[in-house]
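Friendly challenge for the regulars: who can give me the structure tokens for this chain first? No prize, just bragging rights.
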Amino acid sequence: MSLPNQVDVVIVGGGVMGTSAAFHLAEAGISVLLCEKNELASGSTSKAAGGVRANFSDEFNVALGARSLDLFAKFNQRPGYEIDLHRSGYLFALSKSEDVTLFEKSTQIHKKFGVESRMLTPAEAGKISPLLNTSDLLACSFTPNDGHCTPEAVVLGYAGGAKKLGATILTNTQVTNITVDNDEITSVQTTAGNVKTNTVINCAGAWSPQIAAMVGLELPVTPYRRELVITEALGDNFADLPKSMPMTIDYSSSLYWHREGKGLLMGFSDKTTESGFDLKRDPSFLEKLGTIAMHRAPRLMDVGIGKGWAGLYEVTPDHNAILGEFKKVSRFFYATGFSGHGFLQGPAIGEILRDLYLQKQPFVEIQQLSADRFSGGGQLRPEYNIV
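First reply, four minutes later:
Bragging rights claimed.
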């Protein structure tokens, strides 16, 4: 594809946020150029564990998760792509009384939004997630309609759908500058040339602060490396495991696992990792993982490790997204800082960005997620049900 001379909207970033926005805008008849500096889904999206859920503590995230689940469920019809969706549920294992109280409150929020959610006894949890050591658990939170799918497939589906609707998707094309005249965007400079536009949507994830700085906006988004592994195929000694098991998360340690093909996908969030863009894998990661698994899921120690990788979380101070329109420069939108739950919210965010561009009211109120909340113009909204 060649660079168009002029478009309605330039989107920066070819992950799930950018491609979802491109699809929903193109579907609404808007001319779109999406620029990705590498390949599609090459940033955080392709490194995600693929979990999709509505199990959150913040009402906004519950609403986004529920809406995105609906869109994931119909993805093979719109935009028309197979994403290997497995709705085997999410199970949070809780070993502290304060965490039980938190998830009991979350359960009531889930039900308010029509999300099936319930608290389980440790014995009940052990039946649906047999690898889980329940000996010291107090309770578990279970949302049975959550699950996981393939992140790269979601991006390719949205990108393909957007292109069919007339959008231009350019890979290996970096945005180098945004021209602003009298507080209005007039053009975008890229490594493939210049394009006239009056609207930019920043979906650059961990790299979004650099794009925002081009128009004088400061975004408090910090990158942190996170790792995961996929095991070898489960042998005969795991024949007792059910074919469908929920994404299981030990809330205290963040150890998680779910079925992935013939093996398991597992990992944890190492809070000792320093911020930065370094994706070199930690040589002690497997040892740390094993120490946690030895207690919470000891049978994991008997599974051989296959491949693994590291990706970036784009973290904000309150672990909630930064979403909205910059007030000082006309028609500069941002959707970033999802702190580990961006992939699962991508479908709903694409709809919201479309509505913001069209100056329509989105299906949820988004003012509370404005970047202004970090500069004294709003109130922080901490999300607690994080991994």
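The chain has a mean pLDDT of 94. Helices lie at 16-27, 59-73, 97-112, 122-128, 151-164, 208-213, 285-296, 342-357. Your move, everyone else.
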